[in-house]
Write a structure and sequence with these properties.
This protein is an alpha+beta fold and 505 residues long. The protein folds into two domains: 2-20 and 99-308, 3-Layer(aba) Sandwich (Collagenase (Catalytic Domain)); 327-503, 4 Propeller (Hemopexin), CATH 2.110.10. It is 21% helix and 24% strand. The protein is globular. The structure holds zinc ion (2 copies).
């Protein structure tokens, strides 16, 4: 029954929208791109940073940043794929900009909210239920509670508005484009959550235990105003395949509330905090991904109600003889061994080993890091997929992640297996499959005539690597549960050990 109703709804909306294949001129495309970048890719601000200098944000650099964020081919050009993403309905909060790094969160866990006004697209009770359910998404995984107040001050306010609207530095853009925006706890307008009234808002509510109870969607008071707005969409020339003309208020509200609680945009496509609107396949699905949960729990901690806790993988045991690592790097006098969401801090020559969680130290760093190294500028670079993050003096640097293309890798490289910095030469070695690249930290450029075959230059090692680091002039390479100690000068393996030899097991 539900899928039939959904079919009726989508049929009713889609016939009204003609297809406009490539109707924009080159100049219009450039204008659209410029406007998009001004809005969502603000100038970077990386004060006091050494080593990785902030680049002068030219149009091309910002296009590249946008392409990196969305995992597109980093061409620096306004190509068809880029334009397609730029036309998708999305959130109005920038992906890169001043308020992207939003910690800390609210200083209390009992928060209030108020619905300031309503959209005529939906029944009032459906608005209220949608908003309440949007808050429940976050209270399910944190100690936060949200209670509704009907008047007076509230921590979080919910408001529908169009175009330029009072007491807000951002504006709306009519149908499609930006759907909503919100301000984080660090912003003077903290707690303001605004929705673009020029969109067609729908309730996508399913009561527990009854999937057929799909209400709020097909009533006349919902469909009529939505269809009334549809002709406006024609004049905008949006190709139909890029657009959705109805937006699930609960889903968009849950995303915006995420900002109001302190979260920035995620580049993980399945995350609720991904900037672009993606309807749920099944409205009963819980909209948070692990990335969202990791992010919000890094600010507020996990839920106090044990039944709400998402299932966590069991903690790896450091003395397990089969243990393997995702990445290893020195960090000043320590060596850190990363695995999943945790890392061990080892102080060589000392029996102490500490287990820490990545999100506690660096909330914006994802789990399952694939490579890491420390350079001579007190910076540690972490790699996952084709992105890297930089911490400097234990602080996560804003403006990251960036694509590894910035380091000189070709686009064909999708991930780095291991990285290790050689203090004696100022060179960093990057291992990818059976090849390696060498990077000069002083000139910040890849050395010429790379990649080379690992086994040609590291005789005795014919494995791919999980991780590598340098200690006392030796490289240690890790694969599975074993490690190889390599003498760079003699160019030979001088020992093969168990992985966990660093842990005093
Ligand atoms: Zn957003
Ligand atoms: Zn606003």
């Amino acid at each position: 029954m539900k899928s039939f109703l959904l079919f009726l709804v989508s049929a009713a909306f889609s016939y009204a929208l003609p297809i406009f294949p490539g109707e924009r001129s080159e100049e219009q495309n450039m204008q659209l791109a410029q406007k998009y970048l001004n809005q969502f890719y603000e100038q970077e601000n990386e004060p006091g940073q050494r080593g990785w200098k902030s680049k002068n944000s030219s149009f091309m650099t910002r296009i590249q940043e946008m392409q990196e964020f969305f995992g597109l081919n980093v061409t620096g050009k306004v190509d068809a794929d880029t334009l397609e993403v730029m036309q998708q309905p999305r959130c109005g909060v920038p992906d890169i900009g001043q308020y992207v790094l939003t910690l800390p969160g609210w200083k209390k866990t009992k928060l209030t909210y108020r619905i300031v006004n309503y959209t005529p697209d939906m029944k009032r009770t459906d608005v209220e239920t949608s908003i309440q359910k949007a808050f429940e998404v976050w209270s399910a995984v944190t100690p936060l509670t949200f209670s509704r107040v009907h008047k007076g001050r509230a921590d979080i306010t919910i408001e529908f508005a169009t175009g330029v609207h009072p007491r807000c530095p951002r504006q709306f853009d009519g149908p499609l484009g930006v759907l909503g925006h919100a301000f984080p706890p660090s912003h003077p307008l903290r707690g303001n959550v605004h929705f673009d009234e020029d969109e067609n808002w729908i309730a996508n509510l399913v009561e527990q235990g009854g999937a057929d109870n799909y209400h709020g969607t097909l009533t006349d008071d919902v469909v009529a105003p939505a269809l009334k707005k549809a002709p406006e969409l024609r004049s905008l020339g949006f190709p139909r395949q890029y657009t959705t003309v109805e937006f699930d208020l609960r889903l968009v509200a849950a995303h915006e509330i995420g900002h109001a609680l302190g979260l920035a945009h995620s580049s993980v496509p399945g995350a609720l905090m991904y900037p672009n609107y993606k309807p749920l396949n099944d409205p009963t699905d819980f909209p948070l991904s692990q990335d969202d949960i990791d992010g919000i729990q890094a600010i507020y901690g996990p839920s106090l109600n044990p039944s709400n806790k998402p299932v966590k993988p069991t903690l790896p045991k450091m003395c397990d003889p089969k243990i393997s690592f995702d990445a290893i790097t020195t960090l000043r006098r320590e060596v850190i061994f990363l695995k999943g969401r945790q890392f061990w801090r080892v102080y060589p020559g000392n029996s102490e080993v500490d287990l820490e969680s990545i999100s506690t130290f660096w909330p914006s760093l994802p789990s399952d890091i694939q490579a890491a190294y420390e350079n001579m500028n007190d910076q540690v670079l972490f790699f996952k997929g084709n992105h890297f993050w930089v911490i400097s003096g234990f602080q996560m640097q804003p403006g990251y992640p960036k694509a590894i293309g910035h380091l000189g890798f070709p686009q064909t490289v999708k991930k780095i297996d291991a990285a290790v910095f050689d203090k004696n030469t100022g060179k960093t070695y990057f291992f990818v499959g059976n090849q390696y690249w060498r990077y000069d930290e002083n000139s910040q450029a890849m050395d010429e005539d790379f990649p080379r075959i690992i086994s040609d230059d590291f005789p005795g090692i014919d494995e791919t690597f999980d991780a590598a680091f340098e200690h006392n002039g030796f490289f240690y390479f890790f694969h599975g549960s074993r490690q190889w100690k390599f003498d760079l000068n003699a160019k030979r393996v001088i020992g093969v050990m168990k992985n966990n030899s660093w842990f005093n097991c």
